[in-house]
TrEMBL record:
It comes from Pseudarthrobacter enclensis. It is found in: Cell membrane. This is Drug/metabolite transporter (DMT)-like permease. Keywords: Cell membrane, Membrane, Transmembrane, Transmembrane helix. The keyword Plastid does not apply. Belongs to the EamA transporter family.
């Protein structure tokens, strides 16, 4: 289905359908930027004694409550949309939200943060391999963009020191990667009957409920604290960091992320999401005083270069199909900007 027919995707710019925002790239980069704030806000809370599980649970619960009001308004009394799409909402909440974060924190408990994050961001590779198995071999630009983005990710994470390798931790990290890949498949699936804000709100509610259940059963340690937090040169009340984590890094991040994925498709959206790591480094520099090194900046350039290669490959394939050249290029329907395989 062509992205231009998606009523929930990025707004069109006047007089053009190929503008930066209309293409979905602008919204995708915005989503990565606000998602990247989560690390800085969360770290400021963790340093005062919050447990990771408590920070994630508060994040999801607060965001779910905020999005509930506009989500109800978006439904406009058409509650059958929830009934018709309940499986999508549940999968998004359990897999794309709760499980992904829970598995990642389990990986962090056994591995360094850098290695755990690198494992989780193998999701784009999983998506490319899935599309390869379901359709055909990736084109040269897509394969090149894959390698370039992953190389850049390694540089941004700066994995040059001694790294503790734990087999169970690696399995947790891979599980998080699979969940993240499924997240992109779910959010990229064009759905004219389910507004993005409803999917985000419903998924966050399901995710929050799952986190509270895990805490109640003892699987997830919970520790809160009301001490002041430190952000940059400012000492702020704990609720400032929590509000930033909830409103910016969750509410705006998830809604804009779903809109971007529906406009770009799962493959391109997953690659643009790699820039979240670069944004996270920049935010950590500004808010935590962690200045990125030259190797990390170089990695950021490689990530952006890989994203551009994949996006150019998508646009070239779409143009060829639109011009009636599908038979000559051999492009499959799965390579359209907005087409994805159904989530199993």
């Amino acid at each position: 289905m062509p992205a231009a027919k998606n009523p929930i995707s990025a707004p069109e710019l006047p007089g053009t359908r190929t503008g930066f925002l209309a293409s979905g790239l602008g919204i995708a980069l915005f989503s990565s930027a606000v998602f990247g704030l989560s690390g800085s806000f969360a770290k400021s809370l963790l340093e005062t004694g919050w447990s990771p599980g408590a920070a994630v649970t508060a994040r999801l619960t607060g965001a779910a409550l905020i999005l509930a009001v506009p989500a109800v308004s978006a439904l406009k009394g058409r509650w059958h949309q929830l009934r018709d799409n309940w499986l999508t909402i549940v999968l998004f909440g359990l897999v794309g939200v709760a499980a992904c974060q829970l598995f990642y924190f389990n990986a962090v408990a056994r591995l360094s943060v850098g290695v755990a994050l690198l494992l989780e961001y193998l999701a784009p590779v999983i998506i490319v391999l899935w599309l390869w198995a379901a359709s055909r071999r990736p084109r040269v630009l897509t394969a090149g963009g894959t390698l370039l983005s992953l190389a850049g990710l390694v540089l941004v994470l700066d994995l040059t020191g001694a790294v503790k390798v734990d087999v169970v931790g690696v399995l947790w990290g891979m599980a998080a990667a699979v969940c993240l890949a499924i997240y992109f498949f779910i959010t990229a699936k064009e759905n004219d009957t389910l507004p993005a804000i409803v999917l985000a709100s419903g998924g966050l509610m399901v995710g929050a409920a799952a986190m509270w259940l895990a805490a109640a059963t003892g699987l997830l340690p919970m520790a809160f604290n009301t001490e002041d937090t430190t952000l940059g040169a400012w000492t702020t009340p704990w609720w400032v960091s929590l509000a930033g984590l909830v409103v910016l890094a969750t509410v705006l991040a998830y809604v804009s992320g779903i809109m971007a994925a529906r406009a770009l498709g799962s493959k391109v959206a997953s690659f643009v999401s790699l820039t979240e790591v670069l944004f996270a480094v920049v935010w950590a520099w500004l808010l935590l005083g962690e200045l990125p090194g030259a190797i990390q900046l170089l990695g950021g350039v490689l990530i952006v270069g890989g994203v551009i290669l994949v996006r150019l490959d998508e646009l070239r394939a779409s143009a060829a199909l639109a011009g009636g050249k599908a038979a000559q290029t051999g492009a499959s329907p799965l390579e359209h900007a907005n087409d994805v395989e159904p989530v199993p």
